[in-house]
Amino acid sequence: MSITELDRAGGGTATGGTEPAVHAEGLVKAFGEHRAVDGIDLDVRAGEIFGVLGPNGAGKTTMLRMLATLLKIDAGRAEIFGVDVAGNPHVIRQLVGVTGQYASVDENLTARENLWLFGRLQGIASPRARRIATELLGQFGLEEAANKPISQFSGGMRRRLDLAASLITRPPLIFLDEPTTGLDPRTRGQMWDTIRGLVADGCTVLLTTQYLDEADQLADRIAVIDHGRKVAEGTPDELKTAVGDSTLQVLLAEPREVPAAVDVVRRLLGSDPVLSPEQGRLNVALDQADLAADVLIALRTAGISITSVNVAKPSLDEVFLALTGHEADGDDEDVKEVTR
Ligand SMILES: Nc1ncnc2c1ncn2[C@@H]1O[C@H](COP(=O)(O)OP(=O)(O)O)[C@@H](O)[C@H]1O
Ligand SMILES: [Mg+2]
Fold first, then answer.
1. Which one, of 97, 123, 99, 126, lies nearest residue 112 by Cα?
2. Domain range annotation of the chain
3. Is Ligase included in the keywords of this UniProt record (predicted)?
């Protein structure tokens, strides 16, 4: 495909229909015995931000790399804007912008030189590459730093430059692999704005994250993955409702009173609390935060003493506990023993 054809694809011919941006069925990637991605179905609609939420090691990067043709798909199949991924790697690479692959930018070149160079490497004529570089530097607030070598860039600036580089060919679909992990809160906010801007310009974004708040802020829909499998999917609201609007975290003075406390909660709310691996700790999903008082009164009436209490928004950990029965970063087997 030539650049002009790409511009047209980005502008709508290839992507303007009802074709999903990503359609995947039963994706599998095995490393030796270990199935890093173990049968994932995925549908990303054109024009949306889709979030893949999961802890370290869940298989997020592996899944993105398969969809971007950077890793072979072991089983299952995937299409991007209706184009079969395994059969048309060259077309797919033109349709998808992947961040993270430009990490090895030349430290001694300036941001402007780097972007120009990437454009040239993609086969774009020099004057046009220069023009695109200037545009992207503006779009990403890197004008002032444009003529500084990358070695002087902060982490946030590097991340923005990396994203800018992935947009040189104007791909209609952008993969962002943990775009804000390790960034400070202000820089995270800037990145969120940048991502929203991409979608406003007509791009589709598939992003991975470990943070519920990030998925919540950005994503139209979320798939939660764990151990290479999808454990839940829905809008942020649907996911949060699955674990309640807020969570009452209770630490009992006597761990042996846990069964009695579970009984009290079940009778009051009609659902069981989630037991934490920590001895004597319960997480109670609440539809409304003010139900917390009712739970505490009921526990006290039953003569169960409490060491500490906390009402919080459900965290990723709680979403995971509720959906999978184990902690997001926990060792599966061990935790199941304790929470049984
Ligand atoms: N090239 C590889 N060789 C062997 N194992 C790998 C390789 N890449 C990833 N893995 C394993 O696959 C699992 C999923 O990894 P990854 O996709 O990087 O997860 P995530 O991006 O969600 O943190 C992990 O257990 C990881 O150790
Ligand atoms: Mg990863």
1. 126
2. 3-234, 240-339
3. no
Q: 310 phi and psi, to 5 degrees?
A: -150, 135
Helices (H), 100-218: 111-121, 126-139, 155-166, 185-200, 212-218
Ligand 1 lined by 297 (C-beta under 6 Å): no
Cα(114)–Cα(96) distance, integer angstroms: 20
Q: Which amino acid is at 87?
A: G
Q: What is the dihedral of CA 323, 324, 329, 330, to 10 degrees?
A: 140
What region, left, alpha or beta, does residue 202 occupy, with left being phi > 0 and alpha being psi -120 to 50 degrees? left
CATH number of 240-339: 3.30.70
Which numbered ligand comes closest to the C-alpha of 179? 2
Cα dist from 180 to 31, 161, 188, whole Å: 27, 13, 6
Compute the CA torsion angle 109, 115, 121, 122 (nearest 10 deg): 170
17-36: pLDDT as tens digits: 578 999 999 999 999 999 99
Starting from the CA of residue 65, give the closest ligand: 1
Distance separating alpha carbons of residues 209 and 56, to the nearest angstrom: 9
Give the residue whose CA is nearest to atom 3 of ligand 1. 31
Query: For 125-139, how does the pLDDT look when each residue is reduced to its tens digit (9 = 90+)?
Result: 999 999 999 999 988
Q: Is the beta carbon of 168 within 6 A of some atom in ligand 1?
A: no
CB 40 within 8 A of CB 27: yes
Structure tokens at 39: 């049968």
State which of 27, 28, 29, 31 you would mutate to test the pocket of ligand 1, scoring each by most atoms of that ligand within 8 A of its C-beta: 31
Q: Return the CATH number of 3-234, one of 3.40.50.10810, 3.40.50.2300, 3.40.50.300, 3.40.50.720.
A: 3.40.50.300
pTM, to two decimals? 0.77
Nearest ligand, CA of residue 55?
1
Residue 200 pLDDT exceeds 60: yes
Q: What amino acid occupies position 6?
A: L
